[in-house]
Specification:
Blueprint: E1 2-3, H1 9-15, E2 22-30, E3 37-46, E4 54-64, E5 66-69, E6 78-79, E7 84-88, E8 91-95, H2 106-109, E9 114-118, E10 120-127
Antiparallel strand pairs: 1-10, 2-3, 2-6, 3-4, 4-10, 5-9, 7-8, 8-9
Amino acid sequence: MSILCPDEVVTLQSRFGNFQDAVLRRIEHSFGIDEGGCCTVTMSVEDHRNEDGYSNVTLVVRGVTELAFRDQAATRQSLPDGLALRRLNGQWWVDFAPFCRETESADEMRLSDFYLTGSSLTWQVAPFSEE
Protein backbone atom coordinates (compact mmCIF):
# COMPACT_ATOMS: atom_id res chain seq x y z
CA MET A 1 0.00 0.00 0.00
CA SER A 2 1.19 3.49 -0.86
CA ILE A 3 0.43 6.42 1.41
CA LEU A 4 -1.30 9.18 -0.51
CA CYS A 5 0.21 12.63 -0.05
CA PRO A 6 -1.80 15.74 -0.94
CA ASP A 7 0.57 16.64 -3.81
CA GLU A 8 -0.04 13.22 -5.43
CA VAL A 9 -3.82 13.54 -5.78
CA VAL A 10 -3.71 15.08 -9.26
CA THR A 11 -1.37 12.35 -10.52
CA LEU A 12 -3.56 9.61 -9.06
CA GLN A 13 -6.76 11.09 -10.50
CA SER A 14 -5.12 11.62 -13.87
CA ARG A 15 -3.91 8.02 -14.04
CA PHE A 16 -7.40 6.71 -13.32
CA GLY A 17 -9.41 9.34 -15.21
CA ASN A 18 -10.84 10.84 -11.99
CA PHE A 19 -12.26 7.34 -11.36
CA GLN A 20 -15.03 8.17 -13.83
CA ASP A 21 -17.31 5.14 -14.38
CA ALA A 22 -15.41 3.09 -11.79
CA VAL A 23 -17.29 0.01 -10.60
CA LEU A 24 -17.38 -0.60 -6.87
CA ARG A 25 -16.46 -4.19 -6.07
CA ARG A 26 -16.26 -4.20 -2.28
CA ILE A 27 -16.66 -1.83 0.66
CA GLU A 28 -15.67 -2.98 4.13
CA HIS A 29 -15.93 -0.90 7.28
CA SER A 30 -14.62 -1.89 10.68
CA PHE A 31 -14.95 -0.03 13.93
CA GLY A 32 -11.83 0.62 15.97
CA ILE A 33 -11.62 1.49 19.63
CA ASP A 34 -8.37 3.47 19.73
CA GLU A 35 -7.83 4.83 16.21
CA GLY A 36 -11.37 5.11 14.89
CA GLY A 37 -12.72 3.00 12.10
CA CYS A 38 -11.17 1.75 8.90
CA CYS A 39 -12.88 1.65 5.53
CA THR A 40 -11.53 -0.35 2.58
CA VAL A 41 -12.95 0.29 -0.88
CA THR A 42 -12.05 -1.80 -3.93
CA MET A 43 -13.12 -0.69 -7.40
CA SER A 44 -12.39 -1.53 -11.02
CA VAL A 45 -11.33 1.45 -13.05
CA GLU A 46 -9.70 2.42 -16.33
CA ASP A 47 -5.93 2.57 -15.81
CA HIS A 48 -3.98 4.68 -18.29
CA ARG A 49 -0.74 2.86 -17.36
CA ASN A 50 -2.10 -0.65 -17.87
CA GLU A 51 -1.90 -2.23 -21.33
CA ASP A 52 -5.02 -4.28 -20.54
CA GLY A 53 -6.92 -1.06 -19.90
CA TYR A 54 -8.37 -1.76 -16.46
CA SER A 55 -7.09 -2.40 -12.95
CA ASN A 56 -8.55 -2.78 -9.50
CA VAL A 57 -7.72 0.00 -7.07
CA THR A 58 -8.08 -0.37 -3.33
CA LEU A 59 -8.34 2.71 -1.12
CA VAL A 60 -7.96 2.32 2.63
CA VAL A 61 -9.06 5.18 4.87
CA ARG A 62 -8.03 4.85 8.50
CA GLY A 63 -9.24 6.87 11.45
CA VAL A 64 -12.69 7.18 9.86
CA THR A 65 -14.67 9.96 11.49
CA GLU A 66 -17.57 10.23 9.04
CA LEU A 67 -19.21 7.77 6.68
CA ALA A 68 -22.40 8.56 4.78
CA PHE A 69 -24.33 6.46 2.29
CA ARG A 70 -27.77 7.58 1.26
CA ASP A 71 -28.98 5.30 -1.52
CA GLN A 72 -31.30 6.98 -3.99
CA ALA A 73 -33.35 5.48 -6.81
CA ALA A 74 -30.13 4.74 -8.71
CA THR A 75 -27.51 2.45 -7.26
CA ARG A 76 -24.03 3.72 -6.49
CA GLN A 77 -22.28 0.57 -7.63
CA SER A 78 -20.85 2.57 -10.51
CA LEU A 79 -19.41 6.07 -10.23
CA PRO A 80 -20.59 7.98 -13.33
CA ASP A 81 -19.18 11.23 -11.93
CA GLY A 82 -15.96 9.67 -10.65
CA LEU A 83 -14.80 10.48 -7.16
CA ALA A 84 -13.28 13.48 -5.45
CA LEU A 85 -10.26 13.25 -3.15
CA ARG A 86 -9.55 16.21 -0.90
CA ARG A 87 -7.39 16.98 2.10
CA LEU A 88 -9.36 19.42 4.27
CA ASN A 89 -8.63 20.44 7.86
CA GLY A 90 -6.11 17.61 8.31
CA GLN A 91 -8.58 14.95 7.11
CA TRP A 92 -8.88 12.98 3.89
CA TRP A 93 -12.30 13.23 2.24
CA VAL A 94 -13.35 10.67 -0.36
CA ASP A 95 -16.54 11.62 -2.18
CA PHE A 96 -18.03 8.84 -4.31
CA ALA A 97 -20.89 11.04 -5.56
CA PRO A 98 -19.27 14.46 -6.03
CA PHE A 99 -21.62 17.36 -5.52
CA CYS A 100 -19.21 19.49 -7.54
CA ARG A 101 -15.73 18.92 -8.99
CA GLU A 102 -13.94 21.68 -7.04
CA THR A 103 -15.20 21.12 -3.50
CA GLU A 104 -13.61 23.65 -1.17
CA SER A 105 -15.04 22.87 2.26
CA ALA A 106 -16.15 20.06 4.55
CA ASP A 107 -19.70 21.46 4.43
CA GLU A 108 -19.73 21.09 0.64
CA MET A 109 -18.43 17.52 0.93
CA ARG A 110 -21.25 16.72 3.34
CA LEU A 111 -23.80 17.54 0.63
CA SER A 112 -22.81 14.27 -1.04
CA ASP A 113 -24.94 11.13 -0.73
CA PHE A 114 -21.86 8.91 -0.46
CA TYR A 115 -18.62 10.00 1.23
CA LEU A 116 -16.20 9.15 3.98
CA THR A 117 -13.48 10.99 5.82
CA GLY A 118 -10.52 9.89 7.92
CA SER A 119 -7.02 10.69 9.06
CA SER A 120 -4.99 8.68 6.52
CA LEU A 121 -5.41 7.30 3.01
CA THR A 122 -3.44 4.52 1.36
CA TRP A 123 -3.94 2.94 -2.05
CA GLN A 124 -2.90 -0.09 -4.06
CA VAL A 125 -3.29 -1.24 -7.66
CA ALA A 126 -3.97 -4.89 -8.54
CA PRO A 127 -4.80 -6.72 -11.78
CA PHE A 128 -8.40 -6.36 -12.95
CA SER A 129 -10.86 -8.75 -11.35
CA GLU A 130 -14.64 -8.80 -11.13
CA GLU A 131 -14.49 -10.19 -7.59
